[in-house]
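Can anyone check this?
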Amino acid sequence: MNSIVNYHVIDQKNIGDMLSAPSNYFTFPGYNLEKADIREPEATTRGKHIIVGGGGLLFPRFLDNISELIKMREGTKIIAWGIGQQIYGGSKVEDIQAFNYSEYLDEFDLVGIRDFGCQYNWVPCASCMHQSFEKKREIKHEFVIFSHKKFQLKIDKFPRMTNESQDIEKILDFLGSGETILTSSYHGAYWGTLLGRKVLAFPFSSKFYTLKHKPVIYPAPKWKQAKIRFSLFNKLIYEFRYKNKYHCNSDGWQDALKESKAYPDSLQESRMLNQQYYSQILQLIAE
């Protein structure tokens, strides 16, 4: 039996990485479908169709891995599905537009990426296909906070959660309980939008600016390393800095909400485009 390998980041601690893989939602009749970590390309991939799909894989640390997969192709197809760029600290539109997609994607047979408005076919993250989005959820709070585990928001005393949770049902129940979601998580913004909620995003990389159904963006948050200071008689005696935890300024966040809006058709549109892309892939590998 012929095989298809879906390469993505297999990270059991990152719910976004796990749910973004298209192989979670689509089958390929007549093919053995496998999952593999893009950080560990295997020689056994040779002769198999390759789907590079799920997450922010258009990132320098993955360029060599993608190049290695391209070299493994032997008369088979290599396909990009719902991947996207991420420039840390990138916030200027001109910087994002200058991103060099071609060095990653020129050798692909079919390209569909989650970044809207560039020269490539737009195919949003496949996690929109998860069945839990079909559940109706009641709004219980005016605001909820959903933080990236490394980039945490400290705003008032609203209900809060981080993307450390591994339970998508609980995450979507939480996001759906808010009329407006304040988030530093890409998937928090994406999933909240798919649920029909308004979103205010506090970006730490360029990926927040590539969503078609744009959240309101808090302007240029300055992320600083979280720290604890110990003082004695008003004199600093020790300062501990967290290696992978950051906080940002959030002054005036209420003013940004004036432009917020919901996109009630975003789920249907995102699912339709993934289904259409799936049909394109079936046609491609049948040639």
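Reply from J.R.: I decoded it. The first helix runs from residue 15 to 19.
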